[in-house]
Amino acid sequence: MLSMIDPQKFNTLIETNNLINSDYTDIHALLSHILESVTRFCGGEASSILLLDKEKKELYFETALGAKGQDVKRYTLKPGEGIAGWVVQHNKTLIINDVDNDKRHQRHISREIGYHLTNMIAVPMRLKNECIGVIEVMNKADRKPFLEEDIEWLEIFATQAALAITNARNIERAQNEIQFLRDQLTTGGGYHTFIAKSPVIRDKLEIIDRVAKTDSSVLILGESGVGKELFAEQIHLRSPRSHAPFIRVNCAAIPEGLLESELFGHVKGAFTNAIANRQGRFEMADGGTIFLDEIADIPLALQAKLLRVIQERTFEKVGSDVSITVNVRILAATNKDIEAQVEKGEFRGDLYYRLNVLPLFIPPLRQRTEDIPELASFFLKKFMMETKKQFEGFSDKAMKAMLSYSWPGNIRELENSVERACVIGKGRWIQQEDLFLNTPQAVISAQEEGRRDLKNAINSFKAYFIHKVLEEHNWNQTETARELGIQRTYLSRLIKELDIINLKN
Predict the structure, then answer these.
(1) Among the four residues 127, 156, 313, 355, which has the most C-beta atoms within 10 Å?
(2) Is residue 89 pLDDT above 80, yes or no?
């Protein structure tokens, strides 16, 4: 029990308690409020809150007030190390009114930051009797000693603060999850969240707003991984057809022998496995939009039939002579130089011009760096939910690395990099090394195991290069083998021998 109630201190406690129970939106602001009240509460010259990072097993200065507050924040302590470490290890309060003669004092920190510590009080912040951090108050005014009365009040306050910090973290985590789910719902479920901060992408959205009102075909061009499908979604969602179906077809992912049936359907008995009538993607999209991704991979024999659909809106199912009429808007995309394919006779010129009524070029991520922080934050929230891990964000070095990296795989590579960082990252922040930028993971593993001979170096490069090309082609082995100039069977063997893993599966 408190030996004596000081009305002024009691009012300070009530004021601080109100702050704790009202300001949950920003943990850092909340802790600053707490510490300001603590310093005023005990009449200290400086104060700090250290929180325990369970994964790293270290104490870090979350908030520090006083002349050297910013300087001290670069230090960390292990449980048992220093006065704060002793408090965490033993879960007990300490009053030290003669710090110079206390062996637990980390004198080198005081020397390095140029701060003379005379006396202090350190109180554990407990949650269900578990210490989650420490509140320290240093150098009481007028060189007075800290008293037992300070402990009685401060321990009450520290318990409330520990609960408030835990609640704030839980609410922040819940808000992130709610925001992520809201993003999915507002885009209609099944559509991707569209993030656009860079001026160049906002300009593209203005073009899309104009294009969406028409029924003309749009050819979306850009490197692999830039998000061409997301732009196709935006055209559909901003169009009068937004409440009708949006049907996606990855032309490179469907075997050539099945593509015609996939697009136009078939009737029972049309071929060996046609045991029933089947509706094709064009029928499914009737009244809405069809998105033909990797359009340059459609075989020449099928291009004539596709041209007729664009011109006349009619087609026949495989095995049938009955014409079907559909009202479909066609959006197409490719990462290839389709004009060069037309010149080589690999793609029909008349089909190309029909598709290319309204061309839309999507710039690579390296030309829209303003989008990187927003995209990285979005992916981090997504993968924190999937991995059941919590991070506060990216370290300064990690963010600088992302902003300076060229991202040859564009947004898809950024997403994979953030996912990988979530899986292997430790502590409060995603670090630069967690992202594995510029350095192939296979090479790192080989170096760590001491296998620095030429053969392993070559295999490491092969693994990295093949993995990169596979990602650029959505792990389509046929297309990847064609890009690499090797047989598909040989590519499959290399994937197995080099232990190349698709992190998305």
Answers:
(1) 355
(2) yes
CA distances from 483 to 230, 364, 464, 476 (A): 25, 20, 15, 11
Contact between 254 and 235 under an 8 Å Cβ cutoff? The reply is no
CB neighbour class for 184 (10 Å; exposed up to 12, middle 13-18, buried from 19): middle
User: Residue 190: inside a domain, yes or no?
Assistant: no
Among candidate residues 312, 332, 363, the one where a domain is terminated: 363
Same domain, 346 and 473: no
Residues 62 and 49 in one domain: yes
Query: Helical H runs in 365-409?
Result: 371-387, 396-404
CATH number at 107 reads 3.30.450.40
d(C-alpha 46, C-alpha 67), whole Å: 8
Q: Is residue 186 part of a domain?
A: no
The yes-or-no verdict on residue 136 having pLDDT over 80 is: yes
- What is the number of domains present in the chain? 3
**How does pLDDT run across 75-85, given as a tens digit for each residue?**
889 889 999 99
**Is the Cβ–Cβ distance between 356 and 219 less than 8 Å?**
yes
End residue of a domain, out of 128, 145, 177: 177
- Residues 462-470: contacts with CB under 8 Å, at least 24 apart: 462/494, 462/498, 463/498, 463/499, 463/500, 464/440, 466/491, 466/494, 466/495, 466/498, 466/500, 467/440, 467/500, 468/408, 468/409, 470/495, 470/500, 470/502
Residues 354 and 382 in one domain: no
Using alpha carbons, select from 434, 444, 355 the residue that is nearest to residue 402. Answer: 434
Pairwise CA distance, residues 136 & 123, whole Å: 7
Query: Are 98 and 121 contacting, i.e. CB atoms less than 8 angstroms apart?
Result: no
Q: Average pLDDT in the 344-359 region?
A: 92
**Structural element, H or E, at residue 21:** none
Same domain, 222 and 325: yes
Select the highest-mean-pLDDT range: 87-101, 171-185, 246-260.
87-101
- Predicted confidence band of residue 329 (pLDDT cuts 50, 70, 90): very high
The position carrying tokens 């935006």 is 234
Comparing CA positions, the residue from 414, 424, 339 lying closest to residue 378 is: 414
**Which is more confidently placed, 442 or 375?**
375
Same domain, 125 and 230: no
Strand-strand pairing, 76-77 and 58-65? antiparallel
* Residue 423 three-state SS: helix
Structural domain including 413 reads 368-497
Mean pLDDT of the chain: 83
For the residues 233-250, what does the mean pLDDT come to? 92
Nearest to 354 by CA among 317, 306, 289, 315: 306
Q: Are residues 375 and 343 in the same domain?
A: no
